[in-house]
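User:
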Amino acid sequence: MYCNFCYRHCNINEGQSGFCGVRKVENNKLISPNYGFLEALAIDPIEKKPLYHFLPGTKTLSVAEVGCNFKCSFCQNWQLSQTKKSKNSKYVSPKDLVNLALEYKVPSISFTYSEPIVWQDYVIDTAKIAKKHNLKTIMVTNGSFSKEARETLSLFIDAFNIDLKGDSKYYKDICFGNITPVIEGIKYLIEKGNHVEVTTLLIESIHSEEIVKQLSKTLKKLDVKVWHLSRFFPNYKMNNYKATSESFLSEMVNIAKSNGIDFIYGGNSTIDTPTICPNCKKILIPNHFRLNYINNNLKIEKGNCKFCGAKIYGLF
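Assistant: Predicted structure:
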């Protein structure tokens, strides 16, 4: 029986699971045994997703089931992503999750931490209810959708942060995945009008200047407006690697800017990368993690630069 959640299209036999380990065939039916069993639930600043151009300054209800269809050696959340069965979880129905968001008065729900592609049945069921209550939905993902999944998810998810991890060799050797569906997914969602921001976790000894230039050209061609370059910290199977330095990140951010992507930010860092109007070059948001900036310092009004009137990508 074929699973159509991700690009792998696993053909799963009775009693077996797919590559992700969390989609299974039982009694000739394809099921998600962990459906609704949340291993993580927290209220985060939306900037931690990271999303800088979608409801900045607000909080989001972040949730995760277990599982992933990649096996990245550097995974920062491997305890969740590389687990196949819920352990310390509590069942939360889609309706109850939406009610929880309403109770805490947050404007959005984020499906994050592990890989929501492999538990997208819960994601979609929740998003359908959320829309009825004017709640926005966010998906933080590796972007390796199947064609069927990206078409469906584009209808119900308002904003995506998608990882573009490296070049094709990097995907094969370190992520045990494939870059092609990620590129296709980014392209499709942007063309459909979904809000898309892209993140690349930079490993100093692996991500060269040439790779960053290559990724920059690819993202510019896809019409990506927001790109986050984040520092790597040793984790999982790459504990013997050094943390990415601030100086390397700063250098790569400057290189990335050379291809004209409107908004490029440094992440997991103290580097100051404010939001600057691409047209008049004035600072619109000085610091995305400074408290109360949304009330005091935001220079964007109804989606436009307060100084020159240029349209600024995002939802503000």
